[in-house]
Amino acid sequence: MGELFRRIVYLLNRRRMDAELESDMEFHREMAARAGRNNFGNTLRMREQAREAWGWTWLDRLIQDLRYGVRILARSPGFTLMSVLILAIGIGVNVAAFSLFDMVALEPLPVRDPATLVRLERRSPNAYTDGVPYTSLLFYGKNARTLSAVMGVLGVPPMQVDDDLQQATASFITPNYFTELGTRAAQGRLFDPTRDGTANDAPSIVLSYGFWQRRFSGDPSIVGRLIHINRKPATVVGVTPYAFASLGSQRPDIWMPIAQQPYFVEGSHTLTDSGDSAVRMWGRLASGVSAKMAAEELRTLTNELRRQHPNDIWDNEYIQISPGGHLQVMQPEMYQVAALVSVLTLLILAVACANLGGLMLARAVTREREIGIRIAIGAGRWRIFRQLCTESLLLATLGALTGLALGCTVLRLALANSDAPKWLSATPDWRVLLFTVAVTLAAAMFFGLAPALQVARQRQQKTMARQILVGAQVAASCVLLIVAGLLVHAAQHALYTDPGFGYQQLVSIDAQLSQHGYSPAAAKAYLDQMQTRLRALPGVRSVALVELPPLGHTVNRRTREIDGHNIFVYPNWVAPGFFETMGIPVLMGRTFYPGEKNAVIVSQSFADRQWPGRNPIGQAVGDGDSKDMVVGVVGNARINALSDDDATEQYWPAQPGDMPEMTVLARTAGAPDSLPPVVKSISENLDPKLFPEIRQLKVLYHDNVAPVEEVAAVVSLIGMVAVSLAGVGIIGMVAFTVSQRTKEIAIRIALGAKPVQVLAAVLRQFTWPIALGMVAGTGIAAAASRVLRKALFGVSNLDPAGYAGAVAVLVAIIAVAALLPARRALHLDLAKTLHYE
Amino acid sequence: MPMNDMPKPGMPSGALPMLILRVLQSGSLHGYAIAQRIHVLSSQVLGVEEGLLYPTLQKMLAKGWVTAEWGVSETNRKVRFYRLTVAGRKHLKAELNDYDRVTQAIQDILRTA
Q: Which helix (H) or strand (E) holds A648?
């Protein structure tokens, strides 16, 4: 410790210390001279050696190198600017992508003790749902010793506020929700278990900050105001904070205590039905408890639940525990997407680095003299190598700072233009900074190491290095362009081809009859009335019933193994008129008869997989004792999995018992925009307690497709940037080759070579790297894009159009980039070139 | 460089700090005097070169075995005198013990083998 301290003192007082040392040695010399001994040693060198004892030589050298590096870079501002820009793009894209991942999956929520928050979901080897029955939640909450708290969120369809035209989104939550998160109210108070824990407490609601501002213009006297939710009076007790961090980034307009759900949703049995997995469950691990311990205890509790409700618990069911203290609860598929995105962004960095490596190599030639001189006057190769590395690092740092600024600006703009939670900030945190440092070092290594080694060794094997760099750039650009091509094609496909059902003129009307405790008979009466009245409207062409409406809130999916492949089956329960109303063609057989049982209609895709080459009509479907007969085959219509080409569908006839779950579908003759108000008044007339959710499918469809379009646009932009970089890089390298071989080319022309032969001579060294790069890039793209399959809206990840388009664009750009500078070789001034020297 | 300033063969590596500490035991000296003293005391067998003496002294300063303070030389020049510190004294003692043990061991082998 003392030694380090003394060293630091030496560092801080180095000028004085050096002077003292100099004086000592001078005196030594004087005395030696007196004694008649002359010393001819290099005093400066000796002093340097003595100073090395202080242990700061490396710092001196670093500062020297940096100073020299700055001078060198300042002397060629064009090169410096270009390099910093290239790197800034490469690093900026990566920083932005990582920041996004950091926000979503790494940054802890700004709530109390986020590390112990967990998301709890029902799983079994072949079933999954994101909710649990409220009764189970209470059971786990009461009995789990490994959890210090269990929170629940019951999302419900939008609710009617007073007489507003637009409904408000709403969630019911357990009363410990806000207290567990440590949220403080912006106005009034939030729920707490002592005041909002039972159905007997006064009905109270909490508003979101945004809704308070929007709907009540931030009225400061909002607390205590009586408003009506679904016609039921309730008191506003408070407002959540502006930058509120909620679990699973749920952001409804209105929060209500779950105990009062039966009050607001009249007739609902959700809280008592042990088979209704409606509530999303969250927990907080007790102190010192690991997720594994909690999982074991919950498994025991699940088995206990099975004894109580044998029909409601699956075989081998368990509660899956995942970290819940982040913006997003990451599922395995999301990590796949994250991995894919990181591969793409790292490719851009690779292109940028390969590009810069090419620039550095070209520069190395112009610096040969300078370095030769430095070696001649005694600089060691190691020292030269270090000097060059320092320069690379300096460049990389400049690039990284610019890139960091660029990435954060992009992210800030994106955050400001989206409805992201307000607590998110684009300011880089330590993880992002660490990542930036790591990426910068890797980049400096990649673009700086090879040139530095070659220069320091003073070897002239640069052709090989150039070829590798060109190949790498071409391969990376190729991957990016292909992925961009696939996404663009998918977006086009989604927008301009038929998804298998007509969505332009469809309206779905979900009255949530079961939520309001309707009996099957009452539901049937309501639905019949509704259908009859709708049919009577002049603009309505046809009406039908469906249990899981297209693009609805609930998705039901089963996994089925056929010939060793897992395929997803989306089941649905429909009334006979469903296919006509949806515009789904019946390809074989027939649709259901009214009141039919034990029949099933499958989609073409299911029939092709299950019975390839055989007649599907008359085949049996179903596991166990209840087998249903296939009566028809209909066209593929991924009504609840738009983007998934692997999805298949099965339809069963809806039975009288299913009526409370059914949604009405109406197809209009013209635009459906005028229908919703009419439906609202019909429903009001039929039962004023109901507030059906009326949704136009074309709006939902565009909401579903829009993200893909955006992603396609962003990836295309990034791909074009990468290709432009690669193009500029190739122009540079070819131009350089031409300038190096001017004399040779001039001699060839003088001896009568044809232009084609001259061009071939110049470009030959790049042909193989480019070809290999393309092959490698295509291969990588084909392998990596498998992850994308489910997001491509039915476009294959080996889609020839996407690949051909991408490769064509790449070939065109490379051809232009190579031929432009190569052409110069044809217009040489022969006499001048050959007389030179 | 003149031959007489080259380190003489036979100067055991690592011995210089010990010798410096030893000659400083009797009082503070400036750099040249340290070299002279070692030269003289070794009956002119060991010579300490400038290029070795000053790096070693700097190292010892950093280790805290010696300190330097300004004084006036016999030629009336302002010069730094090196003085042994408590840590230096302790280190010297340990070094001497080690050295004695090792030389004793070597002697034993040479005598009996």
A: strand A648-653
Enumerate the residues of chain A whose CB falls inside 8 A of the CB of residue B63: 3
Which DSSP letter does residue A245 get?
-
Cα distance between residue A365 and residue A455, in whole Å: 9
- Beta-strand relationship, A232-239 and A204-207: parallel
Q: Do B50 and A29 touch (CB under 8 A)?
A: yes
Report d(CA B52, CA B1) in Å as an integer: 13
Q: pLDDT grade, residue A330 (50/70/90)?
A: confident
Q: Is the pLDDT of residue A719 over 80?
A: no
Sequence-separated (6 or more) residues with CB below 8 Å from residue A203: A232, A233, A234, A235, A256, A260, A263, A264
Q: What stretches of chain B show up as alpha helix (H) in DSSP?
A: 15-24, 31-41, 50-63, 86-112
Rounded to whole angstroms, how far apart are CA atoms A201 and A257?
10
Q: Which of B54, B77, B80 has its CB closest to that of A50?
A: B54
Residue A133 burial by Cβ neighbours in a 10 Å radius (0-12, 13-18, 19+): buried
| Min Cα separation A53/chain B (Å) | 5
pLDDT of residue B3: 42
Residue A282, token pair as written in the block? 């969250």
CATH number of the domain located at residue range(s) B10-112 in this protein:
1.10.10.10
Total-model pTM: 0.74
DSSP per residue over A476-515, as a string? HHHHHHHHHHHHHHHHHHHHHS--SS--TTEEEEE--TGG
Encoding tokens for residue A496?
A: 């301009």
CA distance A730 to A819: 10
Query: What is the reported pLDDT for A724?
Result: 81
Q: Which of A296, A326, A356 is the last residue of a domain?
A: A326
User: CA–CA separation, A434 vs A431, rounded Å?
Assistant: 5
Under the banding of pLDDT at 50, 70 and 90, the label for residue A791 is low
Query: pLDDT of A569-587, one tens digit each?
Result: 888 999 989 999 998 999 9
Q: A623 phi and psi, to 5 degrees?
A: -105, 155
Together in a domain, A697 and A709: no
Q: With an 8 Å Cβ cutoff, is A674 touching chain B?
A: no
Q: What are the distances in angstroms from CA A792 to CA A129, A574, A785?
A: 24, 28, 10
- C-alpha to C-alpha distance for A271 and A154, rounded to whole angstroms: 10
Residue environment code for A92-109, b if the CB has 16+ CB neighbours within 10 A, otherwise e: bbbbbbbbbbbbbbebeb
Quick one: pLDDT at residue A4?
80
Q: Considering only residues A557 and B27, tell me which one the structure prediction assigns the higher pLDDT.
A: B27
Average pLDDT (A446-452) is: 77
**Whole-number Cα distances in Å, B65 to A12, A509, A649, A764:** 20, 90, 86, 68
Query: Is residue A800 left, alpha or beta, with left meaning phi > 0 and alpha meaning psi from -120 to 50?
Result: alpha
Interface predicted TM-score of the whole assembly (ipTM), two decimals: 0.78
pLDDT on residue A639 = 81
Please check the confidence at residue A601 and state whether its pLDDT lies above 90.
yes
Q: What pLDDT is stored for residue A457 in this prediction?
A: 66
With bands split at pLDDT 50, 70 and 90, how would you rate the model's confidence at A462? Answer: low
Rounded CA-CA distance B21/B66 in Å is 8
Q: Is the pLDDT of residue B6 over 60?
A: no
Domain total in chain A: 4
A50 contacts chain B (CB < 8 A): yes
pLDDT number for residue A459:
58
Domain range for A36 is: 2-55
Q: Whole-number mean pLDDT of chain A?
A: 85
Q: Which of A654, A686, A703 lies at the terminal end of a domain, its last residue?
A: A703
Q: Do residues A316 and A374 share a domain?
A: no
Per residue in A649-682, pLDDT (tens digit) is: 999 999 988 899 899 999 998 888 888 888 888 9
- Which of A24, A30, A34, A47 to probe by mutation at the B interface, max B CB count within 10 Å? A24
Q: DSSP string covering A366-421, please?
A: HTHHHHHHHHHTT--HHHHHHHHHHHHHHHHHHHHHHHHHHHHHHHHHHHHTTT--
